[in-house]
Fold:
Amino acid sequence: MYRQSPVHDGRRAVLLIEDDPAVRRSLQLLLRSRGLEVRAHGSSRAVLADPAAMDAALLVADFRLGDGDGVQILESLRQKGWVGPAVLVTGFASDQLEARARNAGFSLILKKPLVEGAFADTVERLLR
Structure:
């Protein structure tokens, strides 16, 4: 069971990792329009160096990143004690990746391109 979602300024915090700046900004704006706080990063290194990452209620991570991958990020956060739900986003879905992601603790694997409304609804559902 996940602990209750952390709330900052009355909003639930989402940790978003996406290396494409345009996609990252689009998803960040979409989630903020739903009243969510979003901490967005473009690399594994940046998110793992952010002490506020551990306060996130939910992780949304792209699979392929320039300096690692989303599965490695979740594994690192779990080793530090983070227990929230996580969503992996990928354009490179395979049975092998799905098994690896599930073993790491991802709740969902979403395939790109994302349908923005469905994506935001999914995030909100996982935060409830």
